[in-house]
Amino acid sequence: MPENRVNSTDKILTEVAGITRAELDDTHPVDIVLKVIAENFAYHQDAAKRIADGISRYLHGVADGNRHLFSLASCSDSGNYDAAVASMQALREPLAAAVYAYRQAHRTGPQDTNTAT
Prior knowledge:
The chain is mostly helical. It is built from three helices and no strands.
């Protein structure tokens, strides 16, 4: 995995769970799920940023008179940006659920051992 993707994933994990990829156990199912979802979220977030930067450069070219306002490229970039953002939004709930499962699986301190119902 490219270093910038690792950094992006670490940033996501730090924001949502207070951990980094290095702290996740590659053999623990909950850790694996959290890492995969965070990596996918980071991938789509990076894509959205990259596309937004491209759109911004395109619009600056239009403002400078170097490009036409309407082109197929701008439509495609806009659709790709929307898709990346939609993918991030679709991953928010699974990411939150994975963080919750991770915290439940790794919580420390006294546990409730009362099994009476």
